[in-house]
Automatic annotation (TrEMBL):
GO terms for molecular function: hydrolase activity. Gene3D superfamilies: Nucleoside Triphosphate Pyrophosphohydrolase. This is GDP-mannose pyrophosphatase. Keywords: Hydrolase. Belongs to the Nudix hydrolase family. NudK subfamily. The lineage of its organism: Bacteria, Pseudomonadati, Acidobacteriota, Terriglobia, Terriglobales. InterPro entries: NUDIX_hydrolase-like_dom_sf, NUDIX_hydrolase_dom. Its cofactor is Mg(2+). It catalyses: GDP-alpha-D-mannose + H2O = alpha-D-mannose 1-phosphate + GMP + 2 H(+).
Length: 181
């Protein structure tokens, strides 16, 4: 177990808090640990089953931290510590894609990059989809919604076209959940 000796906030904005902790390890050695605190988020797997097959909806957007556009499942948070996870997932889905879901199935809660960040991500499967009007945030002005077949999506994973670890983890979780139903 690691014991916290002291903690100080070094940065804060609407989305993120960064703190630096002085810690003591079980062997008595002291050190510094940097922690990024973020409020909970949701990731949504929008799955559409038709006579033509199974499809998922993805978004493509510019991710500033890596300086490139990337494709991923709709995801995000509301910058609030206390939220109803399903309400947030429904809101993020509608905001980013315009989709509403007749059925939302909670799959699990995962930790995102827990080596440096303290953020939970609630994983939901969205079914019975209906298209409406997207309402992206200012940071999401360049979102592109894509509807792709499940086989195309899985090939994108294998080809490294989709590199978002949250999307990959959510899909793997969904596949295990589906197999065990």
């Amino acid at each position: 177990m690691i014991r916290t000796i002291s903690s100080r906030e070094v940065y804060r904005n609407r989305w993120t808090r960064v703190r630096e902790d002085v810690i003591e390890r079980t062997n008595g050695q002291r050190g510094i640990y940097g922690v990024v605190d973020k409020d909970p988020a949701a990731i949504i797997i929008p799955l559409e089953v038709t006579a033509e097959g199974e499809f998922v909806y993805l978004i493509e957007q510019f991710r500033y931290t890596v300086g490139a556009r990337h494709i991923e499942f709709p995801q995000g948070g509301w910058e609030m510590a206390e939220v109803d996870a399903e309400e947030m997932a429904r809101g993020e889905l509608r905001e980013e894609t315009g989709l509403t879901a007749a059925k939302m199935t909670y799959l699990a809660t995962l930790q995102i990059a827990y080596g440096v960040m303290n953020q939970q991500q609630h994983v939901f499967l969205a079914e019975g989809l209906a298209m409406g009007e997207a309402e992206p945030d200012a940071e999401e002005h360049d979102l592109v919604v894509r509807r792709v077949s499940v086989s195309e999506f899985e090939q994108m994973l294998l080809d490294g076209v989709i590199v978002d670890n949250c999307s990959v983890a959510a899909w793997g979780l969904y596949k295990v959940w589906r197999e065990r139903r």
